[in-house]
Design brief:
By secondary structure, the chain is an all-alpha fold. It has helices at residues 2-6, 10-21, 27-44, 50-58, 64-81, 88-100. The protein has one domain (18-100). It is built from 6 helices and no strands.
């Protein structure tokens, strides 16, 4: 899985953002991202929390997080109806890949 991020390290940050948006970011991951906020701020020359920085870098509008939450609920429901399992990580990986053009 580490190879996944070798050429696109921001992809991991994006996945954490998406997990945060759907309410599935682990506390340890949240803490790590909060500690990383000053580095992100310096790298991207953006003030704010790590989530605010990601939103600005990705140019997410104010409705984006709510739209991702709804998409998560919709996809989860579809998976359940078809007898499949969809984990939060599978969902955010697919969304991040689509956003990154992977």
């Amino acid at each position: 899985m580490a190879d996944r991020y070798a050429k696109q390290p921001f992809l991991r940050i994006l996945e954490f953002y998406l997990l945060h948006a759907i309410g599935e970011l682990a506390p340890s991951e949240r803490t790590a991202m909060e500690k990383m906020a000053p580095q992100l701020s310096a790298t991207f020359k953006q003030p704010g929390s790590w989530t605010e920085i990601v939103e600005r870098v990705m140019k997410f509008d104010a409705k984006f997080a709510a739209e991702i939450r709804q998409s998560w609920r919709d996809n989860l429901e579809r998976a359940k109806k078809s007898g499949a399992t969809l984990t939060p990580r599978e969902f955010v990986t697919a969304v991040a890949d689509k956003m990154a053009g992977a």
